[in-house]
Structure formats: C-alpha cells, structure tokens
Amino acid sequence: MPSLPPIRPEDEAVAEKLRPAGAFDAPSDAHDPVRAGYLLRLGDDALILGQRLSEWCGHAPSVEVDLSLANLSLDLIGQATLFLAEAGDADRLAFKRDVLDFRNCWLVEQPNGDFARTMVRQLLFSTWQHMLYQRLTASSDAAVAGIAAKGVKEVAYHRELAAEWVVRLGDGTDESRARTVDGLDWCWRFVPELFEVDEELAAAVQAGIAADPRSFEEEYRAAVGAVLADATLPLPKDQRAIVGGRRGHHSEHLGHLLAIMQYLPRTYPDAKW
C-alpha cells in the first residue's frame, strides 16, 4: 500500500485553477508593503499630533482656543482612522503596536510645551501637511487621493489658525515673543525630516502613490518665512537635523504618549465601546 494516496484527476483540476499561485501563497489582495508603509506614515503623523493636541482639552488659554484645538485634534484623528484602515485594522494599528513600530515624524511627538510652542509646531507641520495633501489628491492610489481631498480642506484651516497665532504671539508682548522664539528654536531641528526621502518613500513616489516632499521644500520654506516675517520673528538658524522617526527611531516622548493613549485598550482588550 503506498504511503500517500494517488493523485486523482479532480485533484489535478483544482491545482490547475490555482496556478500560478499555490494554495498556501499570500492572497492576491494582500497589501502592497510599499503602499502599506506609506499609509502608516500618513496615519501615524495625524494620529500622534491629534493625541498631542487633545492634551490641551480643558487647559487652553480660553474656551474658544480650547474648542479650536479639540476640533483640530478630531480632524487629525479622523484622517488617521481613514489612513490606518487602508493599511489594516485601524484599532489594532493605533492601540496594539509598540513604540518602535510607529512611523510618525519626530515633530508631531514633541511635547506641547507652552501655547506658543504648540502653535509653532502646528504651523511647521500643518504648512507641510497642507502642501502634501494638495499633491496627494493626484495620487495614483484612489483611496489616498480621496482621503487627501477631504483632509486638505481641514488642514488649510489648521495652517491658517496656526499662522494667525504665531503672528499674534510673535508681534505681541515681550513675553509672548520670547516664548515663540523658544518654540521655534525647539521645533526647527525637526523640519528637515519632513523632506527626507528614504528608499521606502522613494518606492512609493516611483509607484505614483506618494508625493515627493522635496518638490515643495522651497515653497514650504518661503511660506513659513513669510509668516515669521509678519510676526517680526527671525528665521531660525539651521541646526543638526533630527531624523529617524520613519524608521521607528523615536524620542522618549512618544513612549510616554502611547502609554496614556493605549492604556485602556491594552488593559481591557475584550471591552466593547
């Protein structure tokens, strides 16, 4: 008696239908790793900054500002939900990943500091995000283009709000000006990472999914410079660039943020909300 059953004609027919993939190969609709990686970058940037801004809830200088920052936070978390849902299970990606698996830039994970630093951070990021989303509306990926088309309207307001506050603070009292200058000094070293193009991003750009940030770097610096000029603030001197967030190398601040953000889902993993 043979050790294995003979191959029947019907078995051959099933195998023929599976060609060129085997029965245990990855499904044909599995996520493209280049696409998924880019979606994580976009989603993580929005998620982490949204979480940071939520920390102002109940602590902002006025009720109006409190509501404004809460709305910015909700916009960003909504964008993050859409991007992460395209990359996989949005809830698991947000609440079950460890710090080294996040792909956000360093700028968004920085502590809020005082109100001036928060507004400087928002200006630097929202100006970049607005220009990026404008270009992503032409992405070859329909989902990315659709999310960007919706988000660009929201981010235009984020950019405008931040610019107005930076001008008001920079051209305000001696104290507000000093705090704004300190915020610029803190945040400026994280700007170069926004324009870094590594192999993964280069592949996404080549595929038409992503936009090359280097294509609007001059426009970005001119736009930020114009806001600072209106605020009577000097353009910060270039510092040693801090990069690595896209590869999972983060500051200690992100770990503390995630400990708070992920506490409930990790403590009560079976809870239904």
TrEMBL record:
It comes from Sphingomonas arvum. It comes from the Bacteria. Keywords: Oxidoreductase. This is Phenylacetate-CoA oxygenase subunit PaaC. Its EC number is 1.14.13.149. InterPro entries: Aromatic_CoA_ox/epox, Ferritin-like, Ferritin-like_SF, PaaA_PaaC, PaaC. One of its GO terms (molecular function) is phenylacetyl-CoA 1,2-epoxidase activity. SUPFAM superfamilies: Ferritin-like. The gene is paaC.
